[in-house]
Amino acid sequence: MTDDAARHREKMEKRKAVQDAEVAGKTLEKGLLIVHTGPGKGKTTAALGLMLRALGRGWRVGMVQFIKGGWETGERKAVAAFGPQVTWHTLGEGFTWETQDKARDIAACRHAWEVALGLMADEGVRLLVLDELNIALRYEYLDLAEVVATLRARRPDLHVVVTGRNAKPALIEAADLVTEMGSVKHHFAAGVKAQEGIEF
Ligand code: ATP
Ligand code: MG
């Protein structure tokens, strides 16, 4: 072995020992409350990635979309292949500036929350995505204290993913894992419209 190879090997052995000790120190197992927020693209995409991973483990998963309306998306078509492993509810009425009817938006969000409560109570469901719940909270269409208390009191083995910009501090406080998507660059700013297969 050359000197260089020997040095590399020694360094990697030390690194492995550090890594192994760190991993061995983490022993807790629990359902996570995960938040994807921030102005950049990827919040829902990352939630769908987790859903895919969970499906691969044979878990049952749920999706409740609080704002998005009924238009067809690639993700919804794709998960249809998993049959009863997926429960998917698109319950929004579109964006607030599209519906222009506050009472209707509030009613849609309340109904979506009731559906989410049902999925949280379903012990077969291991991962639940609450897409754009942050938007419903931001517009105060749902009671923040009630939502946070309910999420905190969830079954210990249930993973919940909440998406949407401007996550409320109380939700961030309650969460185990919070990722902020930053917008470095977005094609929308250059006049490129939402692309099939990438955005829907
Ligand atoms: P995606 O569903 O693509 O992961 P997202 O969940 O992070 O996006 P949303 O706030 O739900 O973002 O908005 C959805 C739509 O807005 C997507 O079509 C996305 O490409 C677009 N979008 C996201 N971030 C930006 C941005 N910084 N500028 C312009 N459009 C954006
Ligand atoms: Mg989204």
TrEMBL record:
User: What does it do?
Assistant: Required for both de novo synthesis of the corrin ring for the assimilation of exogenous corrinoids. Participates in the adenosylation of a variety of incomplete and complete corrinoids.
**Which family does the record claim for this protein?**
Belongs to the Cob(I)alamin adenosyltransferase family.
Could you tell me what reaction this enzyme catalyses? 2 cob(II)alamin + reduced [electron-transfer flavoprotein] + 2 ATP = 2 adenosylcob(III)alamin + 2 triphosphate + oxidized [electron-transfer flavoprotein] + 3 H(+); 2 cob(II)yrinate a,c diamide + reduced [electron-transfer flavoprotein] + 2 ATP = 2 adenosylcob(III)yrinate a,c-diamide + 2 triphosphate + oxidized [electron-transfer flavoprotein] + 3 H(+)
Known EC number: 2.5.1.17
Species of provenance: Methylobacterium aerolatum
Cite the annotated pathway. Answer: Cofactor biosynthesis; adenosylcobalamin biosynthesis; adenosylcobalamin from cob(II)yrinate a,c-diamide: step 2/7
Pfam families on file: Co_AT_N (PF12557), CobA_CobO_BtuR (PF02572)
For the protein in the UniProt heading, the enzyme class is transferase
Q: Which PANTHER family does its entry note?
A: CORRINOID ADENOSYLTRANSFERASE
In alphabetical order, the GO MF annotations are: corrinoid adenosyltransferase activity
Q: Does the keyword Ligase apply?
A: no
Q: What is the lineage of its organism?
A: Bacteria, Pseudomonadati, Pseudomonadota, Alphaproteobacteria, Hyphomicrobiales
Q: Which CDD domains match?
A: CobA_ACA (cd00561)
Tell me the ranges covered by the Cob(I)alamin adenosyltransferase N-terminal domain, including all copies. 2-23
Which named protein is this? Corrinoid adenosyltransferase
